[in-house]
Design goal:
Elements (H helix, E strand, L loop, with lengths): L4 H48 L5 E2 L1 H6 L1 H26 L2 H19 L16 H19 L2 H13 L3 E2 L4 H45 L4 E7 L8 H6 L3 E2 L15 E6 L19 H6 L3 H8 L1 H8 L9 E4 L7 E4 L2 H9 L1
Antiparallel strand pairs: 1-2, 3-4, 3-5, 6-7
Helix pairs in contact: 1-3, 1-4, 1-7, 3-5, 3-6, 3-7, 4-5, 4-7, 5-7, 6-7
Length: 350
């Protein structure tokens, strides 16, 4: 059950491939959103200038709401957002099958990297999941994507309308007022992009994890469980850092990290002795998160923990396990997030 240097290299290569997939999705989504906003800007600019030119110092909400050009621009925005949502679904779905297949191949490579060289000679073979099982993951993920993106257009359009349809202080420069309103409205419009990108990344990673889980179940007789692996760098959050190295049953889905998380599942084989090989097993190369953290400079520790959390940890008032909290949210799977500082302080005070 020793994780080898080769295991870690395979896991790192897998993360890089997944990062490339999700980056490509983000680029495609961003281009679509930018192009769409470029088509909407003239409509909003014309409507706002028409509304503001010659207006009194303040336009009441009712007057703004009745402006026909502004309402037409908002309707067009809703149409564009519906098109963007359909396009986002296609962008995400196009890579799902590749992600699931990559998970199966990576899982097999991870297991082989932990088995003794003699394993191949005695017919110890890995079983691949049935194609139907992998197709089911793609179908289920597709349904989840549609469910997550369905309210996207309405949510963004409502935020844009709320920004625009309100009392407007005109001032002495209507063009500057129009520019500020358009800039604020663009911020809400791009909130849809951020949400779509988050959905894309989360669903892609979870499809990959389901592929790994399905493959692991096919080879359950070889496994003792799987370990949570986080990315050990200054971007790592306290929650993921505290979960690193924890062991879970083979049948458990995971890692259940937060949205946009970078953690990975590393399946662990049984010991060579348990597998019937009476030979010496190499030392486990899986890195120790606490040892890694203890070796950082104070500046790096502060960057990860923040001042209060770092002080509580240094003083022994909280433990490593207190850094993660399971969160349940509508529309998303359960996930571990960093425990809010106020909760940590409350627990210490109590």
């Amino acid at each position: 059950m020793a994780v080898t240097d080769e295991t870690l290299l395979i896991a790192a290569d897998t993360r890089r491939r997944l990062q490339r997939m999700t980056d490509e999705q983000a680029v495609a989504l961003t281009k679509a959103w930018v192009d769409a906003w470029d088509t909407l800007t003239p409509l909003f600019n014309e409507a706002l200038l028409d509304l503001l030119q010659g207006a009194p110092d303040r336009l009441p909400r009712a007057v703004v709401a009745r402006n026909r050009k502004l309402q037409a621009a908002l309707r067009q925005a809703r149409t564009v957002l519906n098109e963007l949502t359909r396009g986002a679904n296609e962008v995400i779905e196009n890579s799902l099958a590749d992600a699931v297949l990559d998970a199966v191949q990576s899982h097999e490579a991870v297991l082989r990297s932990q088995l003794p060289p003699q394993a191949a000679g005695v017919g110890l073979e890995l079983d691949a999941p049935a194609p139907d099982a992998l197709d089911a993951i793609v179908l289920r993920t597709t349904q989840q994507i549609h469910s997550a993106t369905r309210p996207l257009a309405g949510w963004v359009a409502a935020a844009m309308r709320k920004e625009l349809v309100r009392g407007i202080v005109v001032g002495d420069n209507p063009r500057e007022v129009a520019r500020k309103l358009i800039r604020a409205t663009e911020g809400h419009f791009n909130g849809g992009l951020a949400r779509a990108t988050r959905i894309a990344r989360t669903e892609m990673l979870d499809a990959h994890r389901n592929g790994s889980l399905t493959s692991a179940k096919q080879n359950k007789d070889l496994l003792t469980g799987w370990k949570w692996q986080c990315t050990l760098d200054r971007r790592t959050c306290p929650s993921c850092l505290s979960k690193h190295g924890t062991l879970y049953p083979v049948d458990d889905f995971g890692p259940e990290d937060h949205q946009n998380g970078r953690c990975a599942r590393i399946d662990i084989t049984k010991s060579w002795k348990e597998l019937g090989f009476n030979i010496e097993e190499p030392a486990d190369a899986f890195p120790d998160a606490r040892a890694w953290y203890d070796g950082l400079t104070d500046d790096s520790k502060l960057s990860i923990m923040g001042p209060t959390r770092m002080q509580l940890l240094n003083d022994g008032k909280i433990g490593w396990e207190d850094l993660a909290t399971l969160r349940t949210a509508d529309g998303w799977r359960d996930s571990y997030i960093q425990t809010p500082v106020k909760d940590l302080l409350g627990a210490v005070a109590g």
